Amino acid sequence: MIHSMTGFAARSLPLTPANLALEFRSVNQRYLEIGFRLPDELRALEPALRELIQRRITRGKVECRMSVAAATLTRSTNGLNADLLETLRHWQMQVRQAVPDAAALSVGEILRWPGMQEEANLSAPELHGRILAEAALAVDELVASREREGAKLADFILARLEAMEALLAELRPRLPALLRQHEERLAAKLKEALGENYPERLAQELALFLQKIDVEEELARLAAHLQEVRRVLGQGGAAGKRLDFLMQELHREANTLGSKSAALETTRAAMELKVLIEQMREQVQNIE
C-alpha cells in the first residue's frame, strides 16, 4: 500500500494526578526527520520514541508532542500526601517572608509535584512503559492516517495514467499516416523547387530526416514507463523516490516527443502528456 507523508494522530493517557496528551504530526520531507516537544521530566523517553517511529516510517518530517495537564479530582478525599503538602506550605511561607513578591504555587503545580498524590505513585519504569505503549498506538494511528492519504494519492495518479494511456492509444495508430503525409509534402516541395530529378543525395537526406522525426520509440518508452508506475503503485511500500525518478523519465520522453513532432496532433498530444505528468509529479512529492 502507498503511504502519504502527511498524517496526524492524537491520544490521551490518564495518569493521576495528571493527564498526558500525545500528538504525532507528519509532513513532506525528502528524508526522515524526527522532532520532539516533550516536558522536561519525559526527555528520557526520546531515544525510545525515536526508535518506535523509525521502525514504522522511512520518510517525512515527524513531530512528536507530549503535554501534561492536571487531572480533575472527583473524590471527596483528595488522596494528597498530607506531609508533603504541609512541607510545601511551610516552604512557601518561608520563601514569601523572605521574598514578598515571589509568586505563590498554583493548584496545578502542587498537584504535579512529585509524590503529591499517593494513590497512583507509579515508579519511573512503570510510567515510561505506559507512555511508550500509548505512543505505539499513536504511531499506529499515524501510519493508518498516512495510508488513507496514500490511497487517495494512488487513485489520483492512476486516473492520470489512464488519461495518458488513452492519449497514446489514440495517437499510435495514426503515426504511419501522419509520417507518410509529411513525407509527401516534403517530396512535393522538392519537386516544385528542383523538378522531378532532384539529386539522389537529397533523397537520402530526406529519408534520414523522416527517420529522425519518427516518434515510435518515444511512444514505446512512454508506455513502458507507465506500466512501471502501475507496478510500483501496486507493490506499495516506500515508493516515493522510485516514482519521482519515473516522473523525470516520463517528462524526458514527452519533451522528446514534442521536439520531434512533425504534425500538430503529435504536438498537442505531447503538451497534454506533459500537463498530466506534472500533475502526477506534484502528488508524487507527497508519497513516502
Estimate percent helicity. 55-70%
| Residue-averaged pLDDT | 83
Oligomer: single chain
Strand content: 5-15%
What's the gyration radius in Å?
Answer: 34 Å
Unreliable sequence segments: 72-77
Strand order across the biggest sheet?
1-2-4-3
Give me the number of helical elements: 9
Order of helices and strands: EEEHEHHHHHHHH
- The outline comes out as rod-shaped
Largest sheet: 4 strands, mixed
- Give the domain tally: 3
Q: How does the helix and strand content classify structurally? A: alpha+beta
The CA-CA distance between the termini, in Å, is: 11 Å
How many extended strands? 4
Characterization of this structure:
With 288 residues, the chain is an alpha+beta fold. It folds into three domains: 7-73 and 124-146, Ribosomal Protein S5, domain 2 (2-Layer Sandwich), CATH 3.30.230; 82-111; 147-284, no CATH class. Helix content is 60%, strand content 12%. The chain has helices at 46-54, 82-98, 107-111, 124-171, 175-194, 200-212, 216-235, 240-260, 264-284, and strands spanning 7-15, 18-27, 32-37, 60-70. It has a four-stranded mixed beta sheet. The longest helix has 48 residues, at 124-171. The chain is rod-shaped. It starts with 6 loop residues before the first strand and ends with a helix.
